[in-house]
Amino acid sequence: MSTAPDNPWLSWEYVQRNWSDIATALSQHVSLTLEAIALATAIALPLAALAHLRPRLSGTVLGLSGALYTIPSLALFAILFPLVRDRRVTVLVGLVMYALLVLVRNILVGLQGVDPAITDAARGLGYGRTRILVAVELPNALPAVITGIRLATVTTVALVTIGVIVGYGGLGQLMFRGFRSQYHAEVLTSTLLTVAIAVVADVVLWGVGRLATPWTRGLR
Amino acid sequence: MDAVREALVWLNDPLNWSGPQGIVSLTVEHLAMSLVAVGLAALVALPIGVWLGHRQVGGTATVVVANATRALPTLALLLIFATTGIGFGNRPTVIAAAIFAIPPILSNTYTGLRDVDPAARDAANGMGMSPMRSLLQVELPLALPLVGAGLRTSAIQVIATIPLAALVGGGGLGVIINNGFALQSYGEVLAGGVLVAVLCLVAEAVLAIVQRLATPPAIRARDAASRERANAG
Q1: What residues does each domain of chain B span?
Q2: pLDDT grade, residue B233 (50/70/90)?
Q3: What distance in Å separates the CA atoms of residue B164 and residue B174, rounded to the nearest whole number?
């Protein structure tokens, strides 16, 4: 009679033995998240600004982004991969699309929430439309922009794991391998690391937000 | 675009629509799993949300629950369940989807009941209604639109989550995507992705109509009026 080997949920031995795999998955996860958020922010800012300057477009932009957001990530990856045929590009494009939707919405809401008295004052000082946008509205919308980036980042960290469907899911890869071999420590370690990335990223962005918007401190 | 042509060929094959692993029965299974998951979530979230909203306590708690679940990947919870005694297939997926469906129902129900016009509550009280009767006949009907919105959000989210079942040996429309990847038949993958996407978009449209029909005309008129005021102001 042989007893089943220990299968603990937490095991430091697992981490030591599989450190190189964990490090690979971790860096894949983090780099995918960073690239996706950077690309999405770079696209979202001008898009939201355009929708803000042309209010007629904002309905279309929001409606389209709402419809796209309804499509599950698994289905989006399944649609993209046969067309792109590249694992990393598929996951990256999918992540950028979802982050874009969250960001455009938040930035647009931020731009539209700027006190009209402030833009009026700027107009009275002789500011042109573009200058009002860049020098007055965007800085005032910064808290909303940062909230959007935080939300998009936390969502993206979780979404990367769905990349397992194309075999490029960062820590999701380890989770799935652990599930297949019923290795408890592998499943839980990669889960905890994913949550840790999300929490750390959120705290860092919160700090950046505080530094970037010193005028909001002391209020409320 | 080879994959697009292959996907069209795959979708045009009647054999792929019928049978136990056909599109029709997978869609039925998908919807049945979604219904169970939303039902489970509502069973937990509705009473708690109604009670907390009625008593007007626990606002922070509902926000914390909503934020905490955002950082945890659905796949992680699903795989943890599938690695434990809950077993493979549909059961861990339905439970994981149900857990992630709780926050939208909870927070909307809570907000709906908390934000009932205090004047309406006062009037019910003044008419001699007991708190229970006021809750059932005054507060709940007034909160109904938001409760419905919460159920709709969670239903859409669940329908979008159920495809993950295929990864742990379960059913639903995700099976087509998973089979396609296993066979490296990317036309099938593309077809499966489009089917899941279409199901979600159709569900969203149908639920929007249901919500509109289920809202009493008086409340619909009230909401429309307040929207107009907001737009004018």
Answers
A1: 2-232
A2: very low
A3: 6
> What are A26-61's pLDDT values in tens digits?
999 999 999 999 999 999 999 899 888 888 888 888
- Please give the CATH architecture assigned to the domain spanning B2-232: Orthogonal Bundle (1.10)
Report yes or no on A1 lying in a domain. no
ipTM for this model: 0.84
Instruction: Give strand ranges (E) for A6-165.
Output: none
Q: Using a CB–CB cutoff of 8 Å, tell me whether A81 touches chain B.
A: yes
pLDDT confidence bin for B1, thresholds 50/70/90: low
| Residue B150: HSE in the Cβ half-sphere, 13 Å Cα cutoff | 27
Residues of A in contact with B181 (CB under 8 A): 78, 165-166
A78 closest CB neighbour out of B1, B82, B190? B190
Predicted TM-score (pTM) of this structure: 0.85
DSSP, collapsed to helix, strand or coil, labels residue A43 as helix
Domain count, chain A: 1
Mean pLDDT of B4-9: 87
CB contact under 8 Å between A188 and B160, yes or no, is no
Confirm whether A184 is domain-assigned: yes
Reply yes or no on whether the pLDDT at A218 is more than 80: no
Q: Is A4 on the interface with B (CB under 8 A)?
A: no
Q: Do A165 and B79 touch (CB under 8 A)?
A: no
- Distant-in-sequence, close-in-space partners of B95: CB < 8 Å, separation ≥ 6: B37, B40, B81, B86
* Alpha carbon of B232: minimum distance to chain A alpha carbons (Å): 14
- Integer CA distances (angstroms), A125 to A52, A53, A115, A133, A139, in order: 21, 19, 16, 14, 17
Task: Give the CATH number for residue A64.
Answer: 1.10.3720.10
Q: Which domain holds residue A83?
A: 12-212
